[in-house]
Design goal:
Structural class: mainly alpha
Number of helices: 18
Number of strands: 3
Largest sheet: 3 strands, mixed
Distance between the termini: 43 Å
Length: 386
C-alpha cells in the first residue's frame, strides 16, 4: 500500500506507478522464452549426431501485446513534476515496451533476436576477451563437492533449510521446461527447479546464494517498498541483479573457476549469435573447439538460441565485474538489494529515500557480511577483468 504522505505529496507518481503495476504483471519474459519441448529436442539433436538444429516450441501469449503497448504509452508522464522521477518513469515505459516486443516475438527468429538486442545488448570485444582470458586457466582439481549426486527433491530440502534464516516463504515448483538448473519467477515469488537435474554440493551452495540470497531477497524487498516499480523492476536491471547474484556466490566462498568458465562459455555462445551461428554451430564451438561435454554444450547453446537468439547471458560476467568494483570502492551493496534495481538509478533511489518515497530494506544478503572466498585464482581473475 502507498502511505498517505506519499499519496498526498506525489499523487501523480503514485497514480502512474499503480497503473504500470497493473499493466506489466504478465511480462515475465522467462515464462515465454523457455521452450516447452526442451527434453524431446535434446534427444532428437543427440540422435542426429548434432547435425539437425532443434525445433523449439513456446508458450502462447496470454495477453494482447499491442493493447498493452498502447496503454503503456498513454501514461501521462509529464504530470510528474520532479525531473529525475519523470525521466526515470519515461525510461521504465521504454524498457517495458522493449520487453513486450521480446515476449511478442518469441520463436520468430531474427525478430526476437533484434528485440533482445534492444533490451539486453550483446557482448563487446572486451567482454569476449574477458571470457577467453578466464578460459585460458587450467581447470581446478575435480573434488567431491562437484559431483552431481542430489536430485531435485533433495535440492528443494536444502533450499528450504537455507531459507529458514529469513521469514519469507519459499515456494518451490518443478519443471522440465526451463533451461537453467533453477530460476526465480519474480511475479509469483517462486523458485523453479529443473525436475530431472542432478545437483552437486557446490551447485546447491551456488544456487542458494544466487537464487535465494539475491533474487528472492530482492523480490521480497521490492514487495515491501511503497512504489511497485521496485518489485516489477527498474530499467536494465538484469546486469546489476545477476552481478549481485554471482558476487553473492563469491562472497559466500562457493564461486569456482568452473563456474566462471560456465559464465564465459555463455558469453561466447551469446557472441556467436552476432556472427550468425546456428544452434549446431554454437554447439560445435563449445563441444568440439572448447571440448565442453555435450550436456553442458547443449544447455549453453539452448540458453543463447532460445526464443530466436536471447542475448541476456553475457550480462552475468559484466555484472559481476561492476558489482565487484562497486564493493571494492567501498560503496554499500544495500541500495542494490532494495528490489529489482539497477546501478544506473541509485541516485534516483537516494533521492526517493530523502523524499520518503522509499524505505529501508527488510532483508539482507548474509553472504555480504564477510568475505568467505579462499580461492586466490578467482581473486586474480576478478582483479584482472578489463
Amino acid at each position: 500500500m502507498y502511505p498517505e504522505i506519499v499519496k498526498e505529496t506525489f499523487p501523480n507518481v503514485v497514480a502512474i506507478d499503480h497503473n504500470l503495476n497493473q499493466l506489466v504483471k504478465k511480462i515475465e519474459l522467462l515464462n515465454y522464452v523457455n521452450p516447452i519441448n526442451i527434453e524431446q529436442e535434446k534427444r532428437n539433436f543427440f540422435a542426429s549426431k548434432y547435425n539437425v538444429n532443434p525445433s523449439f516450441r513456446y508458450r502462447k501469449l496470454d495477453f494482447d501485446a499491442h493493447k498493452l503497448q498502447q496503454q503503456l504509452f498513454s501514461q501521462n508522464i509529464d504530470s510528474i513534476r520532479d525531473e529525475a522521477t519523470r525521466a526515470f518513469y519515461r525510461d521504465v515505459i521504454y524498457d517495458y515496451s522493449g520487453l513486450i516486443q521480446c515476449v511478442e516475438t518469441v520463436g520468430q527468429g531474427a525478430k526476437f533476436y533484434y528485440n533482445s538486442l534492444k533490451s539486453f545488448g550483446t557482448p563487446t570485444d572486451r567482454d569476449v576477451e574477458n571470457a577467453r582470458f578466464i578460459l585460458h586457466f587450467e581447470d581446478d582439481v575435480y573434488d567431491q563437492e562437484m559431483f552431481p549426486v542430489f536430485n531435485a527433491s533433495e535440492a528443494a530440502a536444502y533450499f528450504e533449510e537455507f531459507v529458514k534464516r529469513y521469514d519469507f516463504d519459499l515456494n518451490v515448483k518443478y519443471s522440465t521446461k526451463i533451461s537453467a538448473a533453477a530460476m526465480v519467477l519474480n511475479n509469483i515469488q517462486t523458485l523453479v527447479l529443473k525436475k530431472n537435474h542432478h545437483f552437486s554440493a557446490n551447485q546447491l551452495k551456488v544456487l542458494a546464494n544466487h537464487e535465494i540470497g539475491v533474487h528472492l531477497v530482492t523480490t521480497y524487498n521490492g514487495l515491501n517498498q511503497y512504489l511497485k516499480i521496485f518489485h516489477n523492476g527498474f530499467p536494465k536491471n538484469v546486469e546489476t541483479q545477476e552481478g549481485l547474484a554471482v558476487f553473492s556466490e563469491y562472497m559466500s566462498g562457493c564461486l569456482t573457476l568452473y563456474r566462471l568458465k560456465e559464465l564465459s562459455y555463455r558469453v561466447l555462445a551469446t557472441d556467436s549469435l552476432r556472427k550468425g551461428f546456428s544452434f549446431c554451430d554454437t554447439f560445435d564451438l563449445l563441444h568440439n573447439q572448447y571440448k565442453l561435454n555435450r550436456e553442458e554444450s547443449y544447455n549453453i547453446a539452448l540458453r543463447a538460441h532460445r526464443g530466436g537468439g536471447f542475448t541476456k547471458d553475457h550480462l552475468y560476467l559484466t555484472g559481476l565485474k561492476k558489482v565487484y568494483e562497486w564493493h571494492k570502492q567501498g560503496k554499500s551493496l544495500t541500495p542494490l538489494l532494495s528490489g529489482k534495481v539497477s546501478m544506473e538509478y541509485v541516485p534516483v533511489l537516494e533521492q526517493w529515500h530523502k523524499q520518503s518515497m522509499a524505505t529501508e530494506i527488510s532483508y539482507q544478503n548474509y553472504a555480504f557480511e564477510s568475505n568467505e572466498n579462499t580461492n586466490q585464482k578467482v581473486v586474480f581473475i576478478l582483479e584482472n577483468l578489463r
